[in-house]
Structures are given as structure tokens and as C-alpha cells.
Amino acid sequence: MVPLALSDRTGEAALHVSSGRPKDEFAGPNWNYGNKSSSLLAPAQEAPMYGWVEFKETITVPTDTLDNFCRGRMLGRIDFIHMDVQGAEHLVLQGARAMLPNITAIWLEVSDRHLYQGQKLRTDIGRFMHDHGFTLGFEIRREIEGDQFYVNRRCAHVWPYLAVKWVTKFAHRLHFAAVRLKSRRLNSTPSP
């Protein structure tokens, strides 16, 4: 483990430390609920997030970019990144511009609502990923937040995955077009 926060710059930043416990302990009494929402971004509202997540403490942490981190360790390629940095995904992506062409796949959390100040939303992240050569391969949507899996179109070994995805999507569209056409024919046939 490396005690470092990835961001869009090298130096130090404030980490807004989350805490709290819901009334309904949905994951059992031994799970540490409150520490799952800490972020380099301040919360968007003063009220507790989700009604129970609070941010009572801020600490200073060292930051670096993914580009610098990889360069310093002579890493030229990354197969997979799982990124869940509580609204700061765009900061990590900004600091990874040189590495992005050499990353095969990225799984990240996205939101449809500003939970953190300066947070980029699902559409912003999607546009950034598309503009940097990535295709959305899979998505899990929840009420406010969700997860997205992107693959790099420039990596030849993901082309079979993208081909299957495209053929499946085309087959679904063809099927629905045939159903609509059949429905129109049945509705336009005169009654005897």
C-alpha cells in the first residue's frame, strides 16, 4: 500500500474524512460505515450525506498524479483500474492524461447528483472518457450513484469484447425494429 492520494497535481491536499453510522445497520453491526465517503472534495452540503454520513475532520495528505506515479516506477501500461474516490474521479483522470492511452480498462463510480463540491457528474465523466478513447462497456445504475466500466478502444485485445457488444446491440435494435414493423402491419390491416 502506498500512502498517497492520486489527484491532478503533486503536493498536498485536504482530505475530508467521513464518519457516521446509519440507524439501519444494513451491513451488520461490525462494518465500519462512516469511513466509506472520505474525499479530496468537500461535501456539497453541510447536512449529513444520506442523512447520516458526516465530515467532522479534515487531514492533510500527500498527492501525486497517476502520470508521475507510473513514471517514477517505470510503469508503461496498466491493465485495469478500479477507482472509487468519492467524486474526485475527474481529478485522478486529469492527472492521468499521459497514461490514459496505455490503460486497458477502468471501473469507476459516478454520480447523477453533486454530493461533493466541484464533482463532475456521470455525463461529464462519460464525455471525458469518450474523448480520451474509452467506450462504456457496462454500467450499474443506482438511485444517485452507480458504477461504469470503460474499455480503451485503442487496445486491440479489447476489440473482440467491443465487437460482441456492438453485434448484441445491433441485434437488439433489429429485433425491436421487426417488432414495431409487425405491430404497424397488424394495426394497418383492415378488419374483415
Task: From the alpha carbons, calculate the radius of gyration and give it in angstroms.
Answer: 22 Å
Mean pLDDT: 92
Shape: flat
Structural class: alpha/beta
Query: How many distinct helices?
Result: 4
Give a short account of the largest sheet. Answer: 4 strands, mixed
Main sheet strand line-up? 4-5-7-6
End-to-end distance: 76 Å
- The helix content is 25-40%
Beta strand count = 7
Question: How do the helices and strands follow one another from N- to C-terminus?
Answer: EEEHEHEHEEH
Beta fraction:
25-35%
The parts where pLDDT drops under 50 for at least 5 residues are none
What are the main properties of this structure?
4 helices, three-stranded mixed beta sheet, 192 residues, 7 strands, alpha/beta, 28% strand
Describe the protein in words.
By secondary structure, the protein is an alpha/beta fold. It is built from 4 helices and 7 strands. It has a 4-stranded mixed β-sheet, covered by helices on one side. The chain has a 3-stranded mixed β-sheet with strand order 1-3-2. It is flat, with a radius of gyration of 22 Å. The model has no long low-confidence stretch (mean pLDDT 92).
Short description:
The chain is an alpha/beta fold. It contains 4 helices and 7 strands; from the N terminus they run E-E-E-H-E-H-E-H-E-E-H.
Write the layout of secondary structure elements.
Layout: E1 5-6, E2 11-19, E3 54-64, H1 66-72, E4 78-83, H2 89-94, E5 103-111, H3 122-131, E6 134-141, E7 145-152, H4 159-188
